[in-house]
Write a structure and sequence with these properties.
With 135 residues, this protein is of the alpha+beta class. The chain is built from one helix and ten strands. Strands 1, 2, 3, 4, 5, 6, 7, 8, 9 and 10 form a ten-stranded antiparallel sheet that branches.
Length: 135
């Protein structure tokens, strides 16, 4: 009996491992860590994009000055965007995007092409854009 229980546990652990691997392999290509272009203060941020329910959100994970030295800002750990949905074909939109430099919310659109993510946010008729690089 002990042997069959042990074999059953092994099979269960193997099945769970396969499910986890399949889930990770099926992750949306936008998920991961991204490097921004320098902002108006010459700071570069690393943004962690994750699934948030059935949509995507991004959090400011770290920031660096133009020499590459990590700096602390009040925005580290804050959500940069949320409720962004995949629209298919590498295009993402909807939700909200917070622009820390001017403290406004904007409507985001994102276009993924390989390891580049074009990010655009518009509030009324004013828009800003960057191209982020996958880390």
């Amino acid at each position: 009996m002990y042997r069959s229980l042990k074999n059953g546990l092994r099979q269960t652990a193997f099945a769970v491992g396969l499910c986890v691997a399949a889930a990770q392999a099926g992750a949306d290509p936008i998920v991961g860590l991204w490097k921004t272009e320098p902002d108006r203060k010459d700071l570069i941020s690393h943004i962690k994009i994750s699934t948030c329910g059935d949509k995507f959100c991004g959090v400011i994970e770290s920031a660096y000055d133009k020499s590459g030295k990590e700096v602390q800002t009040k925005n580290i750990g804050k959500r940069l965007f949320w409720d962004v949905a995949s629209e298919g074909g590498g295009t993402y939109g909807g939700g909200e995007f917070w622009v820390p430099l001017i403290d406004v919310d904007a409507v985001p659109t994102m276009t993924l092409s390989g390891n580049s993510l074009k990010v655009k946010g518009c509030s009324h008729h004013i828009c800003g854009h960057q191209t982020w690089t996958r880390l």
